[in-house]
Fold this sequence. Notes:
The complex is a heterodimer.
Chain A: H1 3-21, E1 26-34, H2 41-51, E2 61-67, E3 69-73, E4 78-82, E5 97-101, E6 105-112
Helix pairs in contact in A: 1-2
Chain B: E1 13-14, E2 17-18, E3 26-32, E4 38-44, E5 49-60, E6 66-77, E7 83-87, E8 110-117, H1 120-135, E9 139-145, H2 151-162, E10 168-174, H3 179-185, E11 191-195, H4 204-213, E12 221-225, E13 242-248, H5 255-258, H6 260-265, E14 268-272, H7 284-294, E15 299-302, H8 311-349
Parallel strand pairs in B: 9-12, 9-13, 10-11, 10-12, 13-14, 14-15
Antiparallel strand pairs in B: 1-2, 1-11, 3-4, 5-6, 6-7
Amino acid sequence: MHEMSLAEGVLQVIEDAARAQEFSRVTAVWLEIGQLSGVEVEAMKFCFDAVVRDSLAEGARLEIIATPGSGWCMQCSKSVPMTEVFGECPDCGSHQMQVTGGTEMRVKELEVA
Amino acid sequence: MCTTCGCGSGEVKIDGHDHHHGEDHEHGHEHVHADGTRHSHGHSHDGDHAHDHDHAHPHVHADGTQHSHDHDHHHDHGHGAGHDHQHRYAPVHSHAAPAHSHAPGVSARRMVQIEQDILAKNNAYAKQNRERLAERGIFALNLVSSPGSGKTTLLCKTIEMLKGCRAVAVIEGDQQTSQDAERIRATGAPAIQINTGKGCHLDAHMVGHAMEKLALAEDSLLAIENVGNLVCPAAFDLGEAHKVVILSVTEGEDKPIKYPDMFRAASLMLLNKCDLLPYLSFKVDAAIDFARRVNPTIQVLQVSATTGQGMDAWLDWIEVGAGETATKKLATVDALKRRVAELEARLAAR
């Protein structure tokens, strides 16, 4: 969706952590990206490489942990898997769904030197 | 900032003034001189500016003699760029390292748990905005849509109809020009223009600054007209009470499922330009159905800012929200007053 802004956000999180936890080099970054977060993983990788150039994370490996989407079907009153935010319930076909999981965009951990 | 629209950061202007954001406004740094001496200093600043500071530091010469001297630095900062140092006295030493030289870390690789949301910084600013708005009972709406859906016309009409009932202030977001803010000011309402430059959305930091500059009345309505874009603004919380998505009937009725994130983030969808429906093949029911597929709880109102059709229902919706916001503020004020009375009573009892 706006992966460049998000990549800049990731770098900010890394730089803040570098100050707080005193490391000067980042060699790998794990991001948790939900299936329903609207983030295009390939675009994210491309932007990340561009954004971290000349920073403490230059050349760092980007690992994406994809978390599955899930929703609450109001018709069946239960939690079901979802692959699209406008998805339908796999059991009853209803669109009366509330997204409950898979919207994460988090920096999970770093490998630092 | 955005790969889809190819925009970048660093060109934000609030009512024509340069504003750089996303940078730390406080920092310390260390200089390493050719002779190995180090000195560090910290300073804070906001916005682009120049500043002077003085400091003393010792030098060790090759023969072992030591001397110290004072000198002044003059810094010009462009945020995000390097620092230029000008020594007022002829430099007797040179900087061997770049302006920021970080203390060497441990060389062994280790893992650091972060567990932080990528948008944490924006969300922190949004929280701050929300608190400031709540304290003053201000009902804030973030208006989002594609370009050309009639957001500004709708706002002008809304301001006109609310005249005498509720004060309105407007924050206008566009990549360039202050034409929209001028249109709003012509209605008599205060407005401030944020130009995002190449940026494709407003963020909470920009809006916080704009709020400071606007004279916001207690219990008023703050309308934030976002950059015309159905994609990026969805993810950026500005501190508003609700996002209101405007879909004009001259667009396709399937936009809600083409741009689901925006319609999912919104509490209300305004179908605008409804006076044109007789001339178009736009299917209202299909549009509403698509919107509810993405967001089962979205409310929908059909309006025409040009003819005024449906505008009363939209104003009623605003009044309900604004009323609740003002009531909440009063409840907080009353609670605080009770607490003050309670504490004073305790103090008097001593």
